[in-house]
């Protein structure tokens, strides 16, 4: 039967290590406790053959007190484990020790079996004995090390010359710390080492006890955790935590050297579309490839990190000239743009790069990131696949964008109480007779300080921040509610158009949301028309099936701002689109501008051929109205007939039943 051992040690790692080593050698560890009170309780309960006792323990009672109790009451030998060897502690340990020969044997057993390497040094620091674990851990046989000084062969970096002398005089007479140990085969490992002097009755140091344990597993686990914490799992690039640290370091260095530092903010174009169209696995493959291409274009001193999603940031220290950042951006854009094959399909992706330079565009990490982000945003706004340097006016734009975003978020949260958001309705009329055939719902925002804010100022920001999803849902619900209340007030049915943005259409769940709002409000689906733009159509993963689902629901679909995008005509034929809305830019110069006339003519022809209904937008003059009618466009909306109106005014206008025309 193996000996049973109780380990009393308040440093969990040490206790575990010790227990592990003992078990490995065939001993049974009956318990590990951290306090003196628990030690006595466990010893009583489990009756171990020996107790390994740390002296300085958690809690009020010292190890020696518990040791004495265990010894006297239970007659179980106690071996003290301590790095402390100041006389007082030793004396306490001595006092608790019966001069038992058995105990000497137990102590020897511990020396022989402990998982920690032990070397006993004489007063000059020369090894007089080592335990078996010493040999296991270091590969040095006992005979080979006796009489040698550990600093000469064991420690990678020796202790200072007066280390042992200082230890002799130190008030807390022990040293512990991490040290690199060199094995016989020259491989080194990190160790946690204690060194403590042993004194005779007169207080003179006679020996030193040096114990150490291999902590390379702990260190490598730490390194692994560190790696996980600072790297992006998909690409292996650094992550935002790494960026933070490195950027601060580099900024610090750049402030000393005075050399410019560039921060490049890279954002892929239409990544969400690719992800939706080709699946997440393809999206991941794309991101990994982009990461490789980005790193391929960098110098060793540059750092690329993935911020998350499809965004990367690159730190370029020691920029020779500020203009060189543009060259890097161009190279990156070109590299990213190379076609790549994912699951047999060729994909090409663009990107935008925003560039900020230290110290001009920000003297700290936060400010630089902000500037590079603003510049990236501007690059996007100028069109896809390009780069932009930060400039001061962008800061203003960014600030305003932030204010709008925050304000809008607040407005949405407080909506039922504060009514900052409102809907207006612009009549859509029959061009010939001026009768109202429909209404387009247009959102307005009454800002507490800025007054009324139009959608052109906040819709894009709502898109970028994702706020468009709750905002769009609110608009839809509100419009349907208004439609139902007009019907309830006795007004005849009319077509109610609601604008829907790209983010909403990209969400598969949106059809269900619309169905839900229709059920909830009781608005007839046949009277609802959703307006989407051509570019929305193009960035939807599966426009055909989604439009099909809307048709199935009974809801109509219109293509807004028609003519400004790049819809392919053949596409329109296959999609469940009911109406096109001819963009105001074609109407504005009618009649008289030959090109616009021709385009409008062609659009009207196309719409008729495809049996699409059409509405002209922005009809402001009588001449425009008759020109459109001559071409065969029968419906329009615009200031000639009416501005957008509040729900109440719109209802009153219809009730007055006057045909809407100026003559
Ligand atoms: P849109 O859908 O093309 O709406 C027509 C815009 O033209 C409206 O501008 C309207 O007030 C304006 N308009 C109408 N008649 C005339 C005219 O004769 N002359 C001129 N110059 N303009 C005219 P508004 O209300 O500023 O809306 C601008 C855009 O904001 C809308 O263009 C639409 O794309 C977007 N929007 C408005 N409300 C919403 C909404 O609830 N959701 C989404 N996603 N977008 C919305
Ligand atoms: Mg519209
Ligand atoms: Mg429009």
Termini, distance in Å? 113 Å
Roughly how much helix do the residues carry, as a percent range? 40-55%
**Small ligands present:** ligand C2E, magnesium ion
The overall average pLDDT, rounded, is 87
Principal-axes geometry comes out as elongated
- Proportion of strand residues: 15-25%
Q: Tell me the number of strands.
A: 25
Low-confidence residue ranges: none
Radius of gyration: 40 Å
Q: Main beta sheet: strand number and arrangement? A: 9 strands, mixed
Q: Name the structural class.
A: alpha/beta
Q: Count of DSSP helices?
A: 28
Protein architecture, described:
Helix 12 crosses helix 13 (280-296), helix 15 crosses helix 16 (392-413) and helix 16 packs across helix 18. Helix content is 46%, strand content 23%. The strands form five sheets. Strands 17, 18, 19, 20, 21, 22, 23, 24 and 25 form a nine-stranded mixed beta sheet that branches. The chain is elongated, with a radius of gyration of 40 Å. The model has no long low-confidence stretch (mean pLDDT 87). The chain is an alpha/beta fold and 663 residues long. It contains 28 helices and 25 strands. Strand 7 (175-182) and strand 8 (188-199) form a beta hairpin. The termini are far apart.
Describe the protein's topology.
Layout: E1 4-8, H1 12-24, E2 28-33, H2 36-46, E3 50-54, H3 63-74, E4 78-81, H4 87-95, H5 101-113, E5 117-122, E6 127-130, H6 132-138, H7 142-145, H8 150-153, H9 163-169, E7 175-182, E8 188-199, E9 205-214, H10 216-230, H11 240-257, E10 261-268, H12 271-278, H13 280-296, E11 303-308, E12 311-316, H14 324-337, E13 340-342, E14 345-347, E15 351-358, H15 365-381, E16 387-389, H16 392-413, H17 415-418, E17 421-430, E18 436-447, E19 451-453, H18 455-465, H19 468-488, E20 495-499, H20 502-505, H21 510-521, E21 528-533, H22 534-538, H23 543-553, E22 556-562, H24 569-574, E23 579-582, H25 584-587, H26 594-609, E24 613-616, H27 622-631, E25 635-636, H28 647-656
Helix pairs in contact: 2-3, 3-4, 12-13, 15-16, 16-18, 19-21
The structure holds ligand C2E and magnesium ion (MG) (2 copies).
